[in-house]
Design brief:
alpha/beta; 5 strands; globular; DUF488; Protein containing DUF488
Length: 164
Amino acid sequence: MKTTLKIWQPSSYRYFNTMKLFTIGFSKKTAECFFTIVRANSIKQLVDIRENNTSQLSGFTKKADLKFFLRELLDASYVHIPELAPDKVIRKNYKATKDWDQYTKSYIQLIDSRGIINRLKEDSPFIEPFVLLCSEPKPDKCHRALAAGLLTAHLFTDGEIIHL
């Protein structure tokens, strides 16, 4: 299988000191492809925003394995913030209706009710550059894009979102 690397390239109109917020999904990626992309983008921390990070379906991204691979292969750290994940009700409703607008509204309301953005403002666990992890292969119709948008709107106002 041929691997296509996604490496962020700065736009000519951007300042180099702009904070970059990366996102990545692991589905449909081999471990080799996944860690090559993460390494190529000089990621220092992976922020896992899945509710369940120990499922057999997670393959090489199960919490214990991922922490080991990040540390040993990339000298990067791992943090799990399940409060940025949608709950089962939101996921179930979306699976039944495929209504992305409703999913988005429900997700934003949930994140607001959890108060996680304010807690992250007070005590940020982030080490730059970091990447938000989810399972979906693409960011459209994935909560990692919504989480990245909320983080750049409230914590990293000079941030640029880069989907790997």
